[in-house]
Amino acid sequence: MKKLVVEESGCRFKLQIEFLWLRGAIMSKLIDNSISIYEALQNIKDGKYVMPAFQRQFVWGMEQIEKLWDSILLDYPIATFLFWRVDDSNVTWDTYFCNFLSDVTFDSRKQADSVNYDLTGINIHDTDTAVLDGQQRLTSLFLSLFGEAYIRPNYARKKSGDRIVTKLLIELNKNKISVVEGEYNSKKFDIKFSEKIGRLSPTQFEIKNILYEKFQDETTREKAIEEAIVHVPADSKDYARNILQKLYNKVFVEKLVRYTEIIDMKQDDALEMFVRFNSGGKALRKSEITMSILEAYWPSAKTEFGKILVDSYARFDTDFIIRAALMLYGDVVKSNINKKIAEELKNDWNGFKKALTNTESLLKEMNIDVSRFSSSWNVLLPIIYYIYYNPDDYGKNIKGVRAYLLRAIFFTYFQSGTTGKLQQMKSNINSFDYEITIEMLDQMNDLRVTDGKIEDVLNSEKGSRVAGEVLYYLNLDWTSKNYKYEQDHLHPDNRFIGSKPVSVSIADWKRWHGMRNRLPNLHLLEGRSNGSKNDMRLVDYYNDMNDEQKVEFYKQAMIPQDVSLDIEHFEQFYEARKSILAEKIRELLG
Prior knowledge:
The protein is an alpha+beta fold. The protein has helices at 13-22, 37-45, 62-73, 135-145, 213-216, 218-228, 237-253, 267-277, 286-297, 301-308, 318-329, 339-347, 349-365, 381-388, 398-410, 418-431, 438-442, 451-458, 465-474, 506-515, 527-533, 538-543, 547-556, 570-588, and strands at 29-35, 49-52, 81-85, 97-98, 103-106, 119-120, 129-133, 148-151, 164-171, 191-194, 204-206, 257-263, 485-489, 522-526. The strands form three sheets. It has a seven-stranded mixed sheet. Strands 5, 8, 9, 10 and 11 form a five-stranded mixed sheet that branches. The radius of gyration is 33 Å and the shape is elongated.
């Protein structure tokens, strides 16, 4: 029989705790113990067990809960839990915790609806244990026996409140069991949630009913079991009795909740341990862990972030705000949120918001929409840093800010080593009295304008990020936000495929073929115009225009004067336009 995988904790659990303890990171005492499922869940119900506020959302789906109970009845261990003893010595009045969920709604795909735990303070006379690892398993067990589960129909919207009660059932008639034999990681018992409350089979048993007093009382248990299996066929009665007796033993008798309790551990150490152990089960992204840690010190952080991430910043994410906070208040290289940074961000929230608002305003002065950077926001962080320290006169150095922004984009400054380069910018801005200046940029190898860098930009090809960005900024003065523009060849691509012009040598033709996709043969064209131009020869496209359009085309496309538009003179056209673009790019870069 293949072992059923129960997600959430890994087999390295104890070794990792011992390693952390031995290396001296946590000067604490470890106690191993075990209790029954019922005792653990009763502790949750009584408020004795809570979770630190940096715990994540409940993310398990119905199938994971079903498999957890299947594993329990198959005598599989459900992994070790990690508890943290809390008292007056290691928590303060403003340390927040979370209560366990008493009900959860699942969507039509049977996945938890990203449920947040409720934040609360604690009375250490009633609460003495915080669960560091085992949150998903304990929540699932608590919902199964003490809570309620609902499913939202696929026609119902999340905010509508429409939901249907669902019950966790086990089939007692072995002849009706619908499990896939031999399939890896499949259930061996027929345990499943069902919302068909009015049409339950008389041979199905609701798992939470094992809590009835008649099952707990030794003098009435046998009778209770017989009543529960009265509709089970004779050939399945022994099977059914064994299941219910085993269910009772697993919940009330066996010490299945094996845990390591850590005593005398401070909250910062608890945070570190939480991060280290959340690599099991559904892995947390670093941003989720960081956000959880931030919320431990500032419970309303996510709500406040949501107020910023609207309008022009609507497509940005919480990672942007966290990285910006690290840029302003912490170490952007280590990228770790701690209590000091969280409290600085909370206490200076108005100043932080003002820096973002002013950044948007400064970019508008340059005719640039901040929303353009929703997926490439690292480039904005040095600007935000500069503006934060110059809240009232940030516009005085718009030339230096523009030069930085475009150099960083054109030279792909943040393509690698992002955090190190952010720290470099932060250090250089500090050295120049919290200013971004062209003098500062010219002292930085990666942002200094050189002939080699300009040549690399000019050699960027159609479809590349650099070519698209350069064309966008070269044409800011005439493009409209109401239209979509595309990169287009001036001399059409298909003109370089097939037979060459008679007057052009084979060697030149091959070389031109390699040059055709580079920036000097590209321009921006509004989508509909691009469709109509299609593969027209450049000279024919130009001759189809009226006199006013011809003047506008030469200006917008930066076409060199006194150079033929015929394909036979492509190299002369290419080199002349390359010189024009090089000069204009240098102007943009300050």
